[in-house]
Amino acid sequence: MPEGPVMSQDVQEAVASLVRDISGRERVADLAALAARTTAVVGALVAAGAPAGRITHAISRINDRLAARVLELTETRLGRTPAPYCWILFGSEGRREQTFKTDQDNALVYGDTPDAAEEVRGYFGRFAQAAIANLIAIGFPRCPAGYMASTPAWCQPLSVWTSNFSTWVTEPVPDHLLKFLVFCDFRPLHGRFELAVDLREHVRRVATGERRFLGHLANTVLEFTPPLGMFRTFLVERNAEHKGRFDLKLKGMTPLVSAVRFLAISHGITETGTLERLQALRDLHALAPAQHDELAAAFECVMSLRIRHQYEQVVNGSAPDNFIDPDGLSRLERKRLKESFAAMSRVQAMILELNRAFVH
Protein backbone atom coordinates (compact mmCIF):
# COMPACT_ATOMS: atom_id res chain seq x y z
CA MET A 1 0.00 0.00 0.00
CA PRO A 2 1.57 3.32 -1.01
CA GLU A 3 2.35 5.79 1.71
CA GLY A 4 0.27 8.99 1.72
CA PRO A 5 0.85 12.47 3.09
CA VAL A 6 -0.93 11.63 6.34
CA MET A 7 1.87 9.24 7.27
CA SER A 8 4.83 11.48 8.06
CA GLN A 9 8.42 10.55 7.34
CA ASP A 10 9.02 10.32 11.09
CA VAL A 11 6.24 7.74 11.52
CA GLN A 12 7.43 5.74 8.51
CA GLU A 13 10.92 5.68 9.97
CA ALA A 14 9.58 4.60 13.37
CA VAL A 15 7.95 1.56 11.77
CA ALA A 16 11.06 0.76 9.71
CA SER A 17 13.32 1.24 12.74
CA LEU A 18 11.24 -1.13 14.86
CA VAL A 19 11.30 -3.75 12.11
CA ARG A 20 15.09 -3.45 11.86
CA ASP A 21 15.47 -3.77 15.63
CA ILE A 22 13.37 -6.93 15.59
CA SER A 23 15.53 -8.45 12.83
CA GLY A 24 18.67 -7.80 14.85
CA ARG A 25 17.62 -9.65 18.00
CA GLU A 26 19.18 -13.06 18.64
CA ARG A 27 17.03 -14.16 21.59
CA VAL A 28 13.28 -14.63 21.84
CA ALA A 29 13.36 -13.02 25.28
CA ASP A 30 14.54 -9.75 23.71
CA LEU A 31 11.53 -9.52 21.40
CA ALA A 32 8.87 -8.92 24.06
CA ALA A 33 10.02 -5.35 24.79
CA LEU A 34 10.05 -4.59 21.07
CA ALA A 35 6.51 -5.91 20.69
CA ALA A 36 5.43 -3.42 23.36
CA ARG A 37 6.71 -0.54 21.20
CA THR A 38 3.92 -1.21 18.71
CA THR A 39 1.52 0.84 20.84
CA ALA A 40 3.64 3.98 20.51
CA VAL A 41 3.96 3.54 16.75
CA VAL A 42 0.23 3.05 16.33
CA GLY A 43 -0.40 6.07 18.55
CA ALA A 44 1.73 8.17 16.21
CA LEU A 45 -0.27 6.93 13.23
CA VAL A 46 -3.56 7.71 14.97
CA ALA A 47 -2.32 11.19 15.89
CA ALA A 48 -1.19 11.75 12.28
CA GLY A 49 -4.68 10.94 11.02
CA ALA A 50 -3.54 7.94 8.97
CA PRO A 51 -6.28 5.94 7.22
CA ALA A 52 -7.35 2.78 9.03
CA GLY A 53 -6.08 0.54 6.25
CA ARG A 54 -2.62 2.06 6.55
CA ILE A 55 -2.61 1.61 10.33
CA THR A 56 -3.64 -2.06 10.16
CA HIS A 57 -0.96 -2.68 7.52
CA ALA A 58 1.64 -1.06 9.79
CA ILE A 59 0.52 -3.25 12.71
CA SER A 60 0.70 -6.31 10.45
CA ARG A 61 4.16 -5.36 9.20
CA ILE A 62 5.48 -5.18 12.75
CA ASN A 63 3.68 -8.31 13.95
CA ASP A 64 4.78 -10.21 10.84
CA ARG A 65 8.41 -9.40 11.52
CA LEU A 66 8.08 -10.39 15.18
CA ALA A 67 6.50 -13.73 14.29
CA ALA A 68 8.94 -14.40 11.46
CA ARG A 69 11.90 -13.69 13.75
CA VAL A 70 10.48 -16.13 16.30
CA LEU A 71 10.29 -18.76 13.56
CA GLU A 72 13.85 -18.05 12.43
CA LEU A 73 15.16 -18.40 15.98
CA THR A 74 13.12 -21.56 16.51
CA GLU A 75 14.63 -23.05 13.35
CA THR A 76 18.11 -22.19 14.59
CA ARG A 77 17.46 -23.99 17.88
CA LEU A 78 15.85 -27.11 16.42
CA GLY A 79 18.09 -27.48 13.39
CA ARG A 80 17.49 -27.73 9.67
CA THR A 81 13.94 -28.61 8.67
CA PRO A 82 13.59 -32.05 7.02
CA ALA A 83 11.18 -30.76 4.38
CA PRO A 84 10.10 -27.40 2.96
CA TYR A 85 7.35 -25.70 4.95
CA CYS A 86 5.28 -22.54 5.04
CA TRP A 87 3.89 -20.86 8.14
CA ILE A 88 0.54 -19.33 7.23
CA LEU A 89 -1.65 -16.76 8.94
CA PHE A 90 -5.42 -16.50 8.67
CA GLY A 91 -8.30 -14.53 10.19
CA SER A 92 -7.56 -10.84 10.72
CA GLU A 93 -3.84 -11.65 10.49
CA GLY A 94 -4.37 -13.21 7.07
CA ARG A 95 -6.30 -10.12 5.94
CA ARG A 96 -3.73 -7.73 7.47
CA GLU A 97 -6.55 -6.21 9.52
CA GLN A 98 -5.18 -6.64 13.02
CA THR A 99 -5.94 -4.20 15.80
CA PHE A 100 -4.76 -4.21 19.42
CA LYS A 101 -7.07 -7.06 20.39
CA THR A 102 -6.01 -10.14 18.47
CA ASP A 103 -4.95 -13.67 19.28
CA GLN A 104 -2.95 -16.16 17.25
CA ASP A 105 -4.39 -17.60 14.04
CA ASN A 106 -1.76 -19.69 12.31
CA ALA A 107 -1.07 -23.06 10.77
CA LEU A 108 1.78 -24.96 9.14
CA VAL A 109 1.88 -26.51 5.67
CA TYR A 110 4.83 -28.71 4.71
CA GLY A 111 5.86 -30.59 1.61
CA ASP A 112 4.79 -34.18 1.15
CA THR A 113 7.60 -36.64 1.92
CA PRO A 114 6.12 -40.17 1.80
CA ASP A 115 9.46 -41.87 2.46
CA ALA A 116 10.00 -40.04 5.77
CA ALA A 117 6.47 -39.11 6.78
CA GLU A 118 6.80 -39.97 10.49
CA GLU A 119 10.15 -38.25 10.90
CA VAL A 120 8.88 -35.11 9.18
CA ARG A 121 5.63 -35.10 11.14
CA GLY A 122 7.56 -35.42 14.39
CA TYR A 123 9.92 -32.57 13.58
CA PHE A 124 7.20 -30.13 12.58
CA GLY A 125 5.11 -31.10 15.59
CA ARG A 126 8.01 -30.14 17.87
CA PHE A 127 8.75 -27.06 15.81
CA ALA A 128 5.15 -25.81 16.00
CA GLN A 129 4.93 -26.39 19.75
CA ALA A 130 8.15 -24.44 20.35
CA ALA A 131 7.17 -21.61 18.00
CA ILE A 132 3.73 -21.17 19.58
CA ALA A 133 5.24 -21.15 23.08
CA ASN A 134 7.71 -18.46 21.97
CA LEU A 135 4.95 -16.36 20.38
CA ILE A 136 2.96 -16.52 23.60
CA ALA A 137 6.07 -15.50 25.54
CA ILE A 138 6.46 -12.27 23.55
CA GLY A 139 2.81 -11.28 23.86
CA PHE A 140 0.76 -13.02 21.18
CA PRO A 141 -2.14 -14.68 23.05
CA ARG A 142 -3.09 -18.29 22.43
CA CYS A 143 -6.16 -18.86 20.25
CA PRO A 144 -8.91 -20.03 22.65
CA ALA A 145 -10.33 -22.34 19.96
CA GLY A 146 -6.94 -23.92 19.24
CA TYR A 147 -6.59 -22.71 15.64
CA MET A 148 -2.81 -22.74 15.82
CA ALA A 149 0.01 -24.71 14.24
CA SER A 150 0.63 -26.48 17.57
CA THR A 151 -2.67 -28.32 17.14
CA PRO A 152 -1.77 -31.48 15.16
CA ALA A 153 -4.75 -31.12 12.80
CA TRP A 154 -3.40 -27.75 11.65
CA CYS A 155 0.19 -28.89 11.09
CA GLN A 156 -0.09 -31.06 8.01
CA PRO A 157 1.42 -31.75 4.57
CA LEU A 158 0.06 -29.94 1.54
CA SER A 159 -1.88 -32.99 0.39
CA VAL A 160 -3.88 -33.05 3.63
CA TRP A 161 -4.63 -29.33 3.40
CA THR A 162 -5.87 -29.63 -0.17
CA SER A 163 -8.00 -32.62 0.81
CA ASN A 164 -9.42 -30.66 3.75
CA PHE A 165 -10.48 -27.72 1.60
CA SER A 166 -11.98 -30.03 -1.02
CA THR A 167 -14.08 -31.75 1.65
CA TRP A 168 -15.16 -28.47 3.23
CA VAL A 169 -16.37 -27.21 -0.15
CA THR A 170 -18.01 -30.36 -1.52
CA GLU A 171 -19.65 -31.29 1.79
CA PRO A 172 -20.83 -27.90 3.17
CA VAL A 173 -22.23 -29.08 6.49
CA PRO A 174 -22.03 -26.50 9.32
CA ASP A 175 -18.73 -27.79 10.75
CA HIS A 176 -17.09 -27.77 7.31
CA LEU A 177 -18.36 -24.28 6.54
CA LEU A 178 -16.96 -23.06 9.85
CA LYS A 179 -13.53 -24.53 9.13
CA PHE A 180 -13.53 -23.11 5.61
CA LEU A 181 -14.35 -19.65 6.95
CA VAL A 182 -11.71 -19.93 9.67
CA PHE A 183 -8.91 -20.81 7.25
CA CYS A 184 -9.85 -19.33 3.88
CA ASP A 185 -8.24 -15.91 4.46
CA PHE A 186 -4.78 -17.44 4.81
CA ARG A 187 -1.57 -15.88 3.53
CA PRO A 188 2.07 -17.01 3.82
CA LEU A 189 4.32 -15.49 6.47
CA HIS A 190 7.54 -17.51 6.48
CA GLY A 191 9.14 -20.38 4.65
CA ARG A 192 8.43 -21.63 1.13
CA PHE A 193 5.65 -19.37 -0.09
CA GLU A 194 4.97 -21.58 -3.11
CA LEU A 195 3.27 -24.09 -0.79
CA ALA A 196 0.72 -21.44 0.16
CA VAL A 197 0.41 -20.33 -3.46
CA ASP A 198 -0.39 -23.92 -4.51
CA LEU A 199 -2.94 -24.22 -1.72
CA ARG A 200 -4.55 -20.90 -2.65
CA GLU A 201 -4.88 -21.98 -6.27
CA HIS A 202 -6.48 -25.24 -5.14
CA VAL A 203 -9.03 -23.35 -3.03
CA ARG A 204 -9.82 -21.02 -5.93
CA ARG A 205 -10.28 -23.96 -8.28
CA VAL A 206 -12.59 -26.02 -6.05
CA ALA A 207 -14.70 -23.14 -4.65
CA THR A 208 -15.32 -20.91 -7.68
CA GLY A 209 -18.61 -21.76 -9.30
CA GLU A 210 -19.53 -24.44 -6.76
CA ARG A 211 -23.16 -23.33 -6.52
CA ARG A 212 -24.28 -25.53 -3.63
CA PHE A 213 -21.31 -24.48 -1.52
CA LEU A 214 -21.73 -20.80 -2.43
CA GLY A 215 -25.40 -20.98 -1.50
CA HIS A 216 -24.55 -22.26 1.97
CA LEU A 217 -21.75 -19.71 2.28
CA ALA A 218 -24.15 -16.89 1.40
CA ASN A 219 -26.45 -18.00 4.21
CA THR A 220 -23.60 -17.63 6.73
CA VAL A 221 -22.99 -14.07 5.48
CA LEU A 222 -26.62 -13.14 6.08
CA GLU A 223 -26.49 -14.34 9.70
CA PHE A 224 -24.50 -11.23 10.70
CA THR A 225 -26.48 -8.05 10.28
CA PRO A 226 -25.29 -4.54 11.15
CA PRO A 227 -26.83 -2.99 14.30
CA LEU A 228 -29.12 -0.52 12.60
CA GLY A 229 -32.86 -0.54 13.28
CA MET A 230 -35.80 0.17 10.99
CA PHE A 231 -35.76 3.89 11.83
CA ARG A 232 -31.96 4.17 11.52
CA THR A 233 -31.44 3.85 15.26
CA PHE A 234 -28.52 1.91 16.70
CA LEU A 235 -29.37 -1.50 18.15
CA VAL A 236 -27.43 -1.79 21.41
CA GLU A 237 -26.92 -4.48 24.03
CA ARG A 238 -29.45 -4.75 26.86
CA ASN A 239 -27.46 -6.94 29.25
CA ALA A 240 -25.80 -5.29 32.22
CA GLU A 241 -22.18 -5.85 31.19
CA HIS A 242 -22.40 -4.06 27.84
CA LYS A 243 -25.69 -2.19 28.20
CA GLY A 244 -26.09 0.69 25.77
CA ARG A 245 -23.17 -0.44 23.57
CA PHE A 246 -22.63 -2.74 20.62
CA ASP A 247 -19.76 -4.92 19.46
CA LEU A 248 -18.10 -3.02 16.63
CA LYS A 249 -16.22 -6.13 15.49
CA LEU A 250 -19.06 -8.68 15.49
CA LYS A 251 -21.84 -6.29 14.49
CA GLY A 252 -19.88 -3.72 12.50
CA MET A 253 -16.87 -5.38 10.87
CA THR A 254 -18.00 -9.00 10.46
CA PRO A 255 -20.98 -8.22 8.17
CA LEU A 256 -18.70 -6.25 5.84
CA VAL A 257 -15.75 -8.66 5.88
CA SER A 258 -18.06 -11.67 5.36
CA ALA A 259 -19.95 -10.07 2.47
CA VAL A 260 -16.80 -9.00 0.64
CA ARG A 261 -15.19 -12.41 1.24
CA PHE A 262 -18.23 -14.16 -0.26
CA LEU A 263 -18.17 -11.97 -3.36
CA ALA A 264 -14.42 -12.49 -3.75
CA ILE A 265 -14.67 -16.28 -3.47
CA SER A 266 -17.59 -16.47 -5.88
CA HIS A 267 -15.54 -14.53 -8.47
CA GLY A 268 -12.33 -16.50 -8.01
CA ILE A 269 -10.42 -13.60 -6.42
CA THR A 270 -7.33 -14.71 -4.50
CA GLU A 271 -6.71 -11.52 -2.50
CA THR A 272 -7.35 -11.88 1.23
CA GLY A 273 -7.57 -8.28 2.52
CA THR A 274 -11.00 -6.64 2.49
CA LEU A 275 -9.84 -3.45 0.75
CA GLU A 276 -7.82 -5.45 -1.78
CA ARG A 277 -10.82 -7.70 -2.45
CA LEU A 278 -13.02 -4.65 -2.98
CA GLN A 279 -10.59 -3.24 -5.52
CA ALA A 280 -10.41 -6.59 -7.34
CA LEU A 281 -14.21 -6.79 -7.43
CA ARG A 282 -14.34 -3.30 -8.89
CA ASP A 283 -11.70 -4.19 -11.49
CA LEU A 284 -13.83 -7.20 -12.54
CA HIS A 285 -16.94 -4.97 -12.69
CA ALA A 286 -18.50 -7.21 -10.05
CA LEU A 287 -19.06 -4.02 -8.04
CA ALA A 288 -19.95 -0.65 -9.50
CA PRO A 289 -17.53 2.19 -8.63
CA ALA A 290 -20.12 3.72 -6.29
CA GLN A 291 -20.59 0.38 -4.48
CA HIS A 292 -16.85 -0.01 -4.11
CA ASP A 293 -16.45 3.51 -2.75
CA GLU A 294 -19.20 3.24 -0.15
CA LEU A 295 -18.00 -0.16 1.10
CA ALA A 296 -14.38 1.04 1.26
CA ALA A 297 -15.59 4.09 3.21
CA ALA A 298 -17.54 1.78 5.54
CA PHE A 299 -14.40 -0.24 6.21
CA GLU A 300 -12.45 2.93 6.94
CA CYS A 301 -15.15 4.27 9.27
CA VAL A 302 -15.60 1.11 11.34
CA MET A 303 -11.94 0.18 11.53
CA SER A 304 -10.91 3.72 12.48
CA LEU A 305 -13.37 3.74 15.35
CA ARG A 306 -12.14 0.32 16.54
CA ILE A 307 -8.48 1.35 16.46
CA ARG A 308 -9.05 4.67 18.21
CA HIS A 309 -11.27 3.05 20.85
CA GLN A 310 -8.75 0.31 21.58
CA TYR A 311 -5.79 2.68 21.55
CA GLU A 312 -7.44 4.87 24.18
CA GLN A 313 -8.11 1.79 26.32
CA VAL A 314 -4.51 0.57 26.06
CA VAL A 315 -3.12 4.01 26.94
CA ASN A 316 -5.45 4.12 29.97
CA GLY A 317 -4.29 0.69 31.12
CA SER A 318 -7.49 -1.16 30.21
CA ALA A 319 -7.81 -4.36 28.24
CA PRO A 320 -8.90 -3.47 24.68
CA ASP A 321 -12.35 -4.52 23.54
CA ASN A 322 -14.75 -3.78 20.69
CA PHE A 323 -17.76 -2.39 22.53
CA ILE A 324 -18.73 1.13 21.47
CA ASP A 325 -21.23 3.48 23.11
CA PRO A 326 -22.84 5.37 20.21
CA ASP A 327 -23.83 8.18 22.58
CA GLY A 328 -20.12 8.84 23.10
CA LEU A 329 -19.58 9.55 19.41
CA SER A 330 -19.84 12.91 17.71
CA ARG A 331 -22.84 13.70 15.53
CA LEU A 332 -20.66 13.33 12.42
CA GLU A 333 -19.30 9.97 13.59
CA ARG A 334 -22.80 8.67 14.25
CA LYS A 335 -23.90 9.84 10.81
CA ARG A 336 -20.97 8.12 9.08
CA LEU A 337 -21.47 4.95 11.09
CA LYS A 338 -25.14 4.79 10.10
CA GLU A 339 -24.19 5.31 6.47
CA SER A 340 -21.64 2.52 6.79
CA PHE A 341 -24.19 0.10 8.26
CA ALA A 342 -26.68 1.04 5.56
CA ALA A 343 -24.06 0.23 2.89
CA MET A 344 -23.51 -3.17 4.51
CA SER A 345 -27.26 -3.84 4.47
CA ARG A 346 -27.37 -3.01 0.76
CA VAL A 347 -24.56 -5.42 -0.14
CA GLN A 348 -26.24 -8.11 1.96
CA ALA A 349 -29.45 -7.54 -0.01
CA MET A 350 -27.44 -8.04 -3.19
CA ILE A 351 -26.03 -11.31 -1.83
CA LEU A 352 -29.54 -12.44 -0.90
CA GLU A 353 -30.55 -12.03 -4.54
CA LEU A 354 -27.47 -13.92 -5.69
CA ASN A 355 -28.26 -16.71 -3.23
CA ARG A 356 -31.73 -17.11 -4.71
CA ALA A 357 -30.06 -17.75 -8.03
CA PHE A 358 -27.78 -20.37 -6.47
CA VAL A 359 -30.61 -22.38 -4.92
CA HIS A 360 -32.93 -22.28 -7.93
Tell me the name of the CATH class of the largest domain. Answer: Mainly Alpha
Task: Note the main sheet.
Answer: 4 strands, mixed
- State mean pLDDT (0 to 100 scale): 92
Question: Helix amount, in percent?
Answer: 55-70%
Write down the Rg: 21 Å
Q: Any guess at the CATH architecture of the largest domain?
A: Up-down Bundle
Task: Give structural notes.
- The structure is a single chain.
- The strands form 2 sheets. The chain has a 4-stranded mixed sheet with strand order 3-2-1-4, with helices on both faces. Strands 5-6 form a two-stranded antiparallel ribbon.
- With 360 residues, it is α+β, with helices and mostly antiparallel strands.
- The chain has 14 helices and 6 strands.
- The model is unreliable at 1-6 (pLDDT under 50).
- The longest helix is centred in the last third of the chain and has 29 residues, at 331-359.
Describe, in short, the structure shown.
This protein is of the alpha+beta class. It contains 14 helices and six strands.
Chart the SSEs and their pairings.
Elements: H1 9-24, H2 31-36, H3 38-47, H4 52-78, E1 85-89, H5 91-95, E2 106-110, H6 117-137, E3 155-157, H7 158-170, H8 174-183, E4 187-191, H9 193-207, H10 211-221, E5 246-247, H11 248-266, H12 274-283, H13 289-315, E6 323-324, H14 331-359
Parallel strand pairs: 2-3
Antiparallel strand pairs: 1-2, 1-4, 5-6
Helix pairs in contact: 1-3, 1-4, 3-4, 3-13, 4-6, 7-8, 7-9, 10-11, 10-14, 11-12, 11-13, 11-14, 12-13, 13-14
Describe this protein with a few key phrases.
Four Helix Bundle (Hemerythrin (Met), subunit A); four-stranded mixed β-sheet; globular; 61% helix; 360 residues; Beta Polymerase, domain 2; single chain; two-stranded antiparallel ribbon; alpha+beta; disordered N terminus
